[in-house]
Amino acid sequence: MECIFCKIITGDIPSKLIYDRNEIIALEDINPQAPTHLLIVPKKHFENAGEIAENNPETLGEMFRVAKELANGLPGYRTIFNTGAEAGQSVFHAHLHLLGGRAFGWPPG
Ligand code: AMP
Ligand code: ZN
Q1: How far is the CA of 28 from the centre of ligand 1 (A)?
Q2: Which ligand 1 atom is the nearest neighbour of the CA of 13?
Q3: In the Cβ-directed half-sphere of 46, how many Cα atoms lie within 13 Å?
Q4: Percent helix, strand and coil across the chain, each rounded to 5?
Q5: Which residue in 44, 90, 92, 101 could disulfide with 36, CB within 3.0 to 4.6 Å?
């Protein structure tokens, strides 16, 4: 089992877990791109958001609910799923980025 997020979930790799309830964890991104940069991750391994939607759609809703909970107090925040290497995905265990604490440009890079 080579998946880094599966290893974080089993505790084989240490991480700064800031949320762990039911089917979802959240942790601080190791290479933050904003003052707040959290990753919201389903405990079950899915490759990307589309796979979650097809197999466990309620988990997607719960991930966005957790994002709202963890973004509490931020005046605005950005949630991102990268799908595929061309879109910037580097870890192929689905995760929702939650970024906040600064202004963001549009379109994204
Ligand atoms: P993505 O490029 O969308 O697949 O996002 C993967 C994210 O995981 C990147 O922002 C990485 O900085 C982050 N990351 C990789 N390894 C770890 C780790 N061990 N702990 C926390 N975040 C990680
Ligand atoms: Zn995994």
Answers
A1: 9
A2: 19
A3: 24
A4: 30, 25, 50
A5: 101
Residues 6+ apart with CB under 8 A from 41: 5, 8, 9, 24, 25, 26, 27, 93, 94, 95, 96
Amino acid at 102: R
Structure tokens at 89: 């995905």
27-63 tens-digit pLDDT: 999 999 999 999 999 999 999 999 999 999 999 999 9
pTM: 0.97
Residues in the chain: 109
The domains located in the chain, with CATH, are: 4-100 (3.30.428.10)
